Protein backbone atom coordinates (compact mmCIF):
# COMPACT_ATOMS: atom_id res chain seq x y z
CA UNK A 1 0.00 0.00 0.00
CA UNK A 2 1.01 3.59 -0.70
CA UNK A 3 1.59 5.78 2.34
CA UNK A 4 1.47 9.57 2.26
CA UNK A 5 3.38 11.47 4.94
CA UNK A 6 2.84 15.25 5.25
CA UNK A 7 5.89 16.99 6.73
CA UNK A 8 5.87 20.61 7.88
CA UNK A 9 8.82 23.02 7.96
CA UNK A 10 8.86 24.64 11.41
CA UNK A 11 11.26 26.55 13.68
CA UNK A 12 13.61 23.93 15.18
CA UNK A 13 12.46 22.80 18.63
CA UNK A 14 15.82 23.82 20.18
CA UNK A 15 15.46 27.45 19.10
CA UNK A 16 14.26 29.98 21.66
CA UNK A 17 11.41 31.57 19.75
CA UNK A 18 11.42 35.39 19.61
CA UNK A 19 8.38 37.53 18.91
CA UNK A 20 8.80 40.09 16.08
CA UNK A 21 9.21 43.67 17.29
CA UNK A 22 5.85 44.70 15.73
CA UNK A 23 4.00 41.78 17.42
CA UNK A 24 2.71 40.34 14.13
CA UNK A 25 4.26 36.89 14.61
CA UNK A 26 7.48 35.10 15.54
CA UNK A 27 10.89 35.71 14.00
CA UNK A 28 11.77 33.12 11.33
CA UNK A 29 14.52 35.02 9.48
CA UNK A 30 17.98 33.54 10.19
CA UNK A 31 16.45 30.93 12.48
CA UNK A 32 17.19 27.19 12.20
CA UNK A 33 14.23 25.43 10.58
CA UNK A 34 13.57 21.67 10.76
CA UNK A 35 10.96 19.04 10.12
CA UNK A 36 8.17 19.13 12.72
CA UNK A 37 9.24 16.48 15.33
CA UNK A 38 5.91 14.60 15.16
CA UNK A 39 6.33 14.35 11.38
CA UNK A 40 9.75 12.71 11.83
CA UNK A 41 7.91 10.10 13.90
CA UNK A 42 5.37 9.74 11.05
CA UNK A 43 8.14 9.23 8.46
CA UNK A 44 9.86 6.69 10.74
CA UNK A 45 6.62 4.74 11.16
CA UNK A 46 6.03 4.71 7.39
CA UNK A 47 9.59 3.47 6.80
CA UNK A 48 9.08 0.71 9.41
CA UNK A 49 5.84 -0.31 7.65
CA UNK A 50 7.82 -0.51 4.39
CA UNK A 51 10.55 -2.56 6.04
CA UNK A 52 7.87 -4.99 7.29
CA UNK A 53 6.50 -5.30 3.75
CA UNK A 54 3.22 -3.58 4.67
CA UNK A 55 3.90 -0.32 2.77
CA UNK A 56 5.04 -0.36 -0.86
CA UNK A 57 5.79 3.32 -1.48
CA UNK A 58 6.19 6.37 0.78
CA UNK A 59 5.45 9.86 -0.54
CA UNK A 60 6.51 12.85 1.58
CA UNK A 61 4.49 16.04 1.02
CA UNK A 62 5.17 19.52 2.31
CA UNK A 63 3.16 22.69 1.77
CA UNK A 64 5.21 25.84 2.20
CA UNK A 65 8.04 27.90 0.74
CA UNK A 66 10.64 26.59 -1.74
CA UNK A 67 12.95 25.94 1.24
CA UNK A 68 10.52 23.26 2.51
CA UNK A 69 12.31 21.03 -0.02
CA UNK A 70 14.94 20.60 2.73
CA UNK A 71 12.39 18.87 4.98
CA UNK A 72 11.24 16.68 2.07
CA UNK A 73 14.92 15.75 1.44
CA UNK A 74 15.23 14.78 5.12
CA UNK A 75 12.20 12.49 4.73
CA UNK A 76 13.75 11.02 1.56
CA UNK A 77 17.03 10.41 3.41
CA UNK A 78 15.12 8.60 6.17
CA UNK A 79 13.57 6.27 3.58
CA UNK A 80 10.67 7.97 1.75
CA UNK A 81 10.66 7.23 -2.00
CA UNK A 82 9.62 10.55 -3.53
CA UNK A 83 8.39 13.98 -2.58
CA UNK A 84 5.78 16.56 -3.50
CA UNK A 85 6.20 20.23 -2.63
CA UNK A 86 3.07 22.38 -2.71
CA UNK A 87 4.82 25.68 -3.08
CA UNK A 88 3.27 28.65 -1.29
CA UNK A 89 4.76 31.65 0.48
CA UNK A 90 2.61 32.93 3.30
CA UNK A 91 0.24 31.60 5.91
CA UNK A 92 -1.37 28.18 5.41
CA UNK A 93 -4.12 27.39 7.90
CA UNK A 94 -4.94 23.74 8.78
CA UNK A 95 -8.10 23.73 6.61
CA UNK A 96 -6.11 24.96 3.60
CA UNK A 97 -3.43 22.28 4.20
CA UNK A 98 -6.14 19.61 4.63
CA UNK A 99 -7.72 20.66 1.30
CA UNK A 100 -4.31 20.53 -0.44
CA UNK A 101 -3.66 17.09 1.04
CA UNK A 102 -7.11 15.89 -0.05
CA UNK A 103 -6.32 16.95 -3.64
CA UNK A 104 -3.04 14.99 -3.46
CA UNK A 105 -4.80 11.95 -1.98
CA UNK A 106 -7.34 12.08 -4.84
CA UNK A 107 -4.44 12.13 -7.33
CA UNK A 108 -2.09 9.60 -5.71
CA UNK A 109 -4.57 7.18 -4.13
CA UNK A 110 -2.68 6.27 -0.92
CA UNK A 111 -4.22 3.74 1.49
CA UNK A 112 -2.81 5.45 4.55
CA UNK A 113 -1.88 9.02 5.50
CA UNK A 114 0.32 9.42 8.59
CA UNK A 115 0.53 12.99 9.95
CA UNK A 116 1.99 14.45 13.10
CA UNK A 117 -0.52 15.00 15.91
CA UNK A 118 0.41 18.69 15.93
CA UNK A 119 2.82 21.15 14.38
CA UNK A 120 4.94 22.70 17.12
CA UNK A 121 4.77 26.20 15.63
CA UNK A 122 1.03 26.97 15.64
CA UNK A 123 -0.05 24.05 17.91
CA UNK A 124 -3.27 23.62 15.91
CA UNK A 125 -3.62 19.82 16.14
CA UNK A 126 -6.32 19.98 13.47
CA UNK A 127 -4.99 19.06 10.01
CA UNK A 128 -5.26 15.25 10.32
CA UNK A 129 -8.78 15.42 11.72
CA UNK A 130 -9.90 17.86 8.99
CA UNK A 131 -8.36 15.66 6.28
CA UNK A 132 -10.21 12.62 7.67
CA UNK A 133 -13.47 14.59 7.54
CA UNK A 134 -12.87 15.86 3.98
CA UNK A 135 -12.08 12.32 2.77
CA UNK A 136 -14.74 10.58 4.87
CA UNK A 137 -12.04 8.20 6.20
CA UNK A 138 -11.62 6.79 9.69
CA UNK A 139 -8.94 8.25 11.92
CA UNK A 140 -6.64 6.97 14.67
CA UNK A 141 -5.27 10.10 16.30
CA UNK A 142 -2.44 10.38 18.88
CA UNK A 143 -1.19 6.90 17.97
CA UNK A 144 1.41 5.25 20.21
CA UNK A 145 1.27 1.85 18.46
CA UNK A 146 0.19 0.70 14.99
CA UNK A 147 -0.27 -2.96 14.03
CA UNK A 148 -1.55 -4.48 10.79
CA UNK A 149 -4.43 -6.82 11.66
CA UNK A 150 -5.63 -8.56 8.48
CA UNK A 151 -7.35 -5.91 6.37
CA UNK A 152 -7.51 -3.42 9.24
CA UNK A 153 -5.05 -1.44 11.35
CA UNK A 154 -5.05 -1.70 15.13
CA UNK A 155 -4.09 1.66 16.59
CA UNK A 156 -3.35 2.29 20.25
CA UNK A 157 -4.21 5.88 21.17
CA UNK A 158 -2.89 7.98 24.03
CA UNK A 159 -5.94 9.39 25.81
CA UNK A 160 -6.24 11.18 29.15
CA UNK A 161 -5.20 8.79 31.88
CA UNK A 162 -4.81 5.68 29.71
CA UNK A 163 -4.79 3.97 26.35
CA UNK A 164 -7.57 3.25 23.87
CA UNK A 165 -7.24 0.69 21.07
CA UNK A 166 -9.23 1.19 17.89
CA UNK A 167 -9.54 -0.87 14.74
CA UNK A 168 -9.43 1.15 11.52
CA UNK A 169 -10.76 0.12 8.15
CA UNK A 170 -8.45 1.16 5.34
CA UNK A 171 -8.01 3.70 3.81
CA UNK A 172 -7.39 5.67 6.99
CA UNK A 173 -5.70 8.62 8.66
CA UNK A 174 -3.27 8.30 11.54
CA UNK A 175 -1.67 11.04 13.62
CA UNK A 176 1.45 10.27 15.62
CA UNK A 177 2.13 10.74 19.33
CA UNK A 178 5.56 11.03 20.93
CA UNK A 179 5.84 7.43 22.13
CA UNK A 180 5.10 5.78 18.76
CA UNK A 181 8.79 5.33 17.90
CA UNK A 182 12.20 6.95 18.00
CA UNK A 183 13.05 8.35 14.55
CA UNK A 184 16.33 7.24 12.96
CA UNK A 185 19.10 9.58 11.93
CA UNK A 186 19.66 9.54 8.19
CA UNK A 187 23.04 8.00 7.33
CA UNK A 188 25.43 9.85 5.02
CA UNK A 189 24.99 7.33 2.15
CA UNK A 190 21.21 7.70 2.48
CA UNK A 191 21.51 11.51 2.45
CA UNK A 192 23.51 11.19 -0.79
CA UNK A 193 20.95 8.77 -2.28
CA UNK A 194 18.11 11.12 -1.31
CA UNK A 195 19.56 13.81 -3.59
CA UNK A 196 18.62 11.68 -6.58
CA UNK A 197 15.07 10.95 -5.46
CA UNK A 198 12.41 13.01 -7.31
CA UNK A 199 10.52 15.96 -5.84
CA UNK A 200 7.55 17.23 -7.85
CA UNK A 201 6.56 20.87 -7.35
CA UNK A 202 2.96 22.07 -7.68
CA UNK A 203 1.10 25.24 -6.70
CA UNK A 204 -2.18 25.35 -4.73
CA UNK A 205 -3.92 26.67 -7.88
CA UNK A 206 -2.76 23.55 -9.82
CA UNK A 207 -4.67 21.51 -7.23
CA UNK A 208 -7.69 23.81 -7.47
CA UNK A 209 -7.42 24.91 -3.84
CA UNK A 210 -7.95 28.46 -2.55
CA UNK A 211 -5.62 28.86 0.44
CA UNK A 212 -6.62 32.41 1.41
CA UNK A 213 -6.47 32.62 5.24
CA UNK A 214 -9.78 32.90 7.12
CA UNK A 215 -8.27 34.23 10.33
CA UNK A 216 -6.34 37.41 11.06
CA UNK A 217 -3.70 37.25 13.79
CA UNK A 218 -4.25 40.39 15.85
CA UNK A 219 -1.23 40.17 18.12
CA UNK A 220 1.52 37.81 19.31
CA UNK A 221 3.03 38.42 22.75
CA UNK A 222 5.90 36.94 24.78
CA UNK A 223 4.90 35.48 28.17
CA UNK A 224 5.50 37.99 31.03
CA UNK A 225 9.08 37.96 32.37
CA UNK A 226 9.44 36.12 35.69
CA UNK A 227 10.30 38.31 38.69
CA UNK A 228 13.56 37.51 40.47
CA UNK A 229 13.12 35.37 43.61
CA UNK A 230 13.89 36.40 47.22
CA UNK A 231 15.94 34.44 49.76
CA UNK A 232 14.51 34.12 53.24
CA UNK A 233 16.47 33.31 56.40
CA UNK A 234 13.95 31.06 58.12
CA UNK A 235 10.70 29.16 57.77
CA UNK A 236 9.05 31.73 60.05
CA UNK A 237 10.07 34.53 57.67
CA UNK A 238 8.80 32.50 54.69
CA UNK A 239 5.41 31.97 56.33
CA UNK A 240 5.24 35.65 57.25
CA UNK A 241 5.98 36.75 53.67
CA UNK A 242 3.48 34.28 52.23
CA UNK A 243 0.88 35.73 54.61
CA UNK A 244 1.63 39.44 54.41
CA UNK A 245 3.27 39.97 50.99
CA UNK A 246 2.09 37.20 48.67
CA UNK A 247 -1.19 36.89 50.61
CA UNK A 248 -1.55 33.26 49.57
CA UNK A 249 -2.08 31.76 53.06
P1 LIG B 1 -1.42 21.12 12.79
O1 LIG B 1 -2.84 20.72 12.57
O2 LIG B 1 -1.05 22.42 12.12
O3 LIG B 1 -1.02 21.11 14.26
O4 LIG B 1 -0.50 20.03 12.05
C1 LIG B 1 -0.69 18.63 12.23
C2 LIG B 1 0.07 17.88 11.17
O5 LIG B 1 -0.42 18.21 9.87
C3 LIG B 1 1.57 18.14 11.09
O6 LIG B 1 2.28 17.38 12.05
C4 LIG B 1 1.88 17.70 9.66
O7 LIG B 1 1.94 16.29 9.56
C5 LIG B 1 0.63 18.18 8.91
N1 LIG B 1 0.83 19.53 8.37
C6 LIG B 1 0.40 20.72 8.88
N2 LIG B 1 0.79 21.75 8.10
C7 LIG B 1 1.51 21.22 7.08
C8 LIG B 1 2.19 21.75 5.95
N3 LIG B 1 2.22 23.07 5.71
N4 LIG B 1 2.82 20.89 5.11
C9 LIG B 1 2.79 19.56 5.34
N5 LIG B 1 2.17 18.99 6.39
C10 LIG B 1 1.53 19.81 7.25
Write up what this structure looks like:
It is a single chain. By secondary structure, the protein is α/β, with parallel strands linked by helices. It has a single domain, classed as HUPs (Rossmann fold, 3-Layer(aba) Sandwich). It contains 6 helices and 11 strands. The chain has helices at residues 37-51, 69-78, 94-108, 127-135, 188-194, 235-244; strands spanning 2-6, 9-11, 33-35, 57-64, 82-87, 112-116, 138-149, 152-159, 162-169, 172-176, 199-202. A 9-stranded mixed sheet has the order 9-8-7-10-6-1-4-5-11, sandwiched between helices. A hairpin with a 2-residue loop joins strand 7 and strand 8. Helix 2 packs across helix 5 (188-194) and helix 3 crosses helix 4 (127-135). It is globular. It starts with a strand and ends in a 5-residue tail after the last helix. The model has no long low-confidence stretch (mean pLDDT 96). The structure holds adenosine monophosphate.
Strand content: 25-35%
Uncertain stretches of 5 or more adjacent residues: none
Give the count of structural domains. Answer: 1
Main β sheet profile: 9 strands, mixed
Mean pLDDT: 96
Element-level helix/strand string: EEEHEHEHEHEEEEHEH
- Provide a count of the helices: 6
The CATH class turns out to be Alpha Beta
CATH architecture: 3-Layer(aba) Sandwich
Category from helices, strands and their pairing: alpha/beta
The best one-word shape is globular
First-last Cα distance? 62 Å
> Per CATH, what is the topology?
Rossmann fold
Determine the CATH superfamily: HUPs
The small molecules bound here are: adenosine monophosphate
What is the radius of gyration computed over CA atoms, rounded to a whole number of angstroms? 22 Å
Keywords: Electron transport, Transport
Subunit structure: Heterodimer of an alpha and a beta subunit.
Pfam families: ETF (PF01012)
Protein name: Electron transfer flavoprotein subunit beta
Amino acid sequence: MKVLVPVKRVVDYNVKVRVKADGTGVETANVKMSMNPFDEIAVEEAVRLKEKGVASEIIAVSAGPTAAQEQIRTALAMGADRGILVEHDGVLEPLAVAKLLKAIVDKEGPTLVILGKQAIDDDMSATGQMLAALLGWGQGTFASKIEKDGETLKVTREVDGGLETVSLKLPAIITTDLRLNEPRYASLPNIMKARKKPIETVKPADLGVDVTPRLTVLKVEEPPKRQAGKKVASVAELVDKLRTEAKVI
